[in-house]
Amino acid sequence: MFEAFYGMVNTPFTRDVPTNKLYDSPTMQEVLGRLKYTAERQLFAVLTGDCGTGKTTTIRKFVDGLDSGIYQVLYLSDSKLTPRHFYKGLLEQLGAEAKFYRGDAKRQLHREIELMRGIHGIQPVVVVDESHLLDREMLEEVRFLLNFKMDAQSPMALILVGQSELWDRLRLQSYAAIRQRIDIQFKLVHYDRAQVGQYVESHLKYAGVSHQIFSDNALDEIHRFSGGSARLINKVCTHCLLYGSQNRHRIIDDHMVKHVIQGELS
Fold first, then answer.
1. Region 126-147 average pLDDT
2. What CATH number does residue 242 fall under?
3. Which domain holds residue 260?
4. 148 contacts 155 by C-beta, under 8 angstroms
């Protein structure tokens, strides 16, 4: 709808923007570098961040950048994940039918991974999204899973991804044994005002727009409303573009952003 009015060839503020067109902030570059190191060295990493800071988007960009001839990504996202379903989910992605008992399934997974690495030279990268919802039993299972060949090596790269409360839990003394096994930990942060402007500019460039649509004062209001959350930036910008096109405004100013926020997003 608004794409034609503003002369866009792509829709700018959606979740399906290609990963190579996403705004590449310094934080994103640092996180991607650490995730790549995690995959190369088969480490245990924890990625956290507040709602809307782009955790899953970051993982998508990371996965798209991996060499499929070297790595196989196994992705799980289940708020009710139990150890048995964990092994079942991974084995199914490897094309195997999981044994019923947890211990058997774990040994089966280790065998499948040894075959994958030994015969095909493929290294597994396991990503567990929404990990802040995992219960204690599942988090404890992670510790046992990584105990491989008398703890001489890790059977896989394992990345837990979740909201900030995941790290708050892991910092508790009762989780010390799990926390001590974590090799790399990093947190996604909200964008500052300058980065919000760069984010909007980057996504408009992907849409094929070379001229400015949002005024500087409009970007101030977008930053104020979103708090630097990518998800909220996308939301308010999309609503503003809809409002602007319907009212034939080529430039979106701060008054229009305030009107949209108060009328549609409050």
1. 88
2. 1.10.8
3. 2-8+191-265
4. yes
